[in-house]
Amino acid sequence: MKKLKVVSDTQFKQRPVLSSDLPRQEKVFVASGTEFDLAKADIVQNGHFKVTLAKPLGPAMQTDWYVYKPDARIYDTKVKLTVISDTLFKQRPVLSNQLSDREKVFVSNGTEYYLQSYLPAEGQHVRVAIANAFLGPENRTVWYAYKPDIRILGDTVTLTVVSDTLFKTSPQMASQLSNQEKVFVKNKTELELVKHEPAQANHVKLELAEPSFSNRSERIWYAYKPDIQIEGNEEDNQPKNETPPPKPSGPSIKLPGFQSSFYLSNSIIPGGHFTWGEATHGGSRIPVDRNVVYGIIRIARVMEEVRDRLGGRPLTINSWYRDPVTNRRVGGASRSRHLVGDAVDFVAPGIHPYDVYDRLNRWWGSRGGLASATVFTHIDTRGYYARWSYGF
After folding, report:
1. pLDDT at residue number 251
2. Taking the chain, what is the end-to-end CA distance rounded to the nearest angstrom?
3. Which one-letter DSSP state was computed for residue 379?
4. Is residue 263 part of a domain?
5. Quick check: is 149 in a domain?
6. Shared domain check, 344 and 268
7. pLDDT tens-digit series, residues 72-92
8. Is pLDDT at 245 greater than 90 in this prediction?
9. DSSP code at position 294
10. Whether 371 and 282 share a structural domain
């Protein structure tokens, strides 16, 4: 369920204009800290939310109101954090004795918060964006929590627009579309997604959780890859931690679209460190088509860079290409990049996966997806910024 929390004394209005321009009967005062259950929420012009409350409000007992955006926060109750041991929330993921009193806040065992998002961070920390509370002397919502001290249940996917852009009904140049086939979306807009996947012409196909633009009922849009960032794990993406592939059971395999044989012990990239045996789980997972082979080669080049960035240490491959049957069996997402060969789950011995994530995050940028569980790190070459934590 979506909720609205008022974070500054405000007026709920019947029209999205200055409250001073409205007669008394078209507005109602709402105090800071008040929370409402929502049936619906939209972003409208003039910096307002249009909300439909679950229960009526005001003398006229209305459910539809406009709220000035800076005065309210809208959040979903899908992701809950529970503190399971007295802890400190911190402004940096370091030991608490390295922080000033203003950079940390005590949070007692049993405290619960709803989150907008959460991501891995170095030193076994989790970066959390709290949706329904402000903490510390500066009323912050973004904190680092020590992973063993908290439990997080639930997932959500949030898109953030990082440059003024146009959402489109098809992946074409904006100049080729009519006004009815595109909508302007302002920088820093945040939207909840059901799913997302690469599309043609450097676009991403998006399915919004609900219609988010006034007078538009569409949930499917296309966005230009460089203009968006996506954080959060899809609900069906809970893969089991696979064991490293077995030693090759045969000397070579045939790959679709290629005449020659590929020896399982041979490097994918000439002179490289990763083999066809690792990519195909000991030769037990043969790519379904030529495009998968190209995906394997593409991420193999990336893995050579990853190895260098982690000090040249050998990396253990847990999962690379997955055929559709295997992907379903291990609990991978229905649109997993492992299905197209350009994703790898790996372990860097001696480095916690959250620290691996931290070392790679800025470098990897918008080239693809990056995520960590407590037991492995995931990287893929989807071609746009996607980040998440598996929550285990």
Report:
1. 83
2. 24
3. E
4. yes
5. yes
6. yes
7. 888 888 899 999 999 999 999
8. no
9. H
10. yes
Question: Does residue 318 form part of some domain?
Answer: yes
What proportion of the chain, given as a percentage, has pLDDT over 90? Answer: 68
Last residue of a domain, one of 109, 132, 153: 153
Indicate whether 225 belongs to any domain.
yes
Phi, psi of 126 (to 5 degrees): -125, 130
296 and 355, same domain (yes or no):
yes
Examine the domain organization and report whether 63 and 146 are in the same domain. Answer: no
Question: How far is residue 389's CA from residue 119's CA, in Å, rounded to a whole number?
Answer: 5
C-alpha closest to that of 127 among 142, 112, 116 = 142
Distance from C-alpha of 362 to C-alpha of 351, rounded to nearest angstrom: 18
CA pair distance 93, 99, nearest whole angstrom: 10
**What is the pairing mode between strands 35-44 and 316-319?**
unpaired
- Residue 64: how many CB atoms within 10 A of its CB? 14
Instruction: Say how many domains are in the chain.
Output: 4
The partner residues of 125 in beta bridges, in order of sequence, read: 121, 146
**Residue-number span of the structural domain to which 15 is assigned:** 2-76
Angle between the 353-364 and 290-309 helix axes, to the nearest 10 degrees? 110
Q: Which helix (H) or strand (E) holds 74?
A: strand 72-76
Q: What is the pLDDT of residue 120?
A: 95
**Whether residue 374 sits in one domain with residue 276:** yes
- Kindly report the pTM of this predicted structure: 0.83
Q: What is the pLDDT of residue 211?
A: 81
Residue pair 208/180 in contact (Cβ under 8 Å)? The answer is no
Report residue 273 as tokens. 């460190």
Q: In what order do the strands lie in the sheet with 48-57?
A: 27-30, 10-13, 62-68, 48-57, 35-44, 2-6, 72-76
Whether residue 11 contacts residue 28, with contact meaning beta carbons closer than 8 Å, is answered with yes
Q: Kindly state the average pLDDT of the residues 382-392.
A: 92
| Boundary (domain end) residue, out of 24, 53, 76 | 76
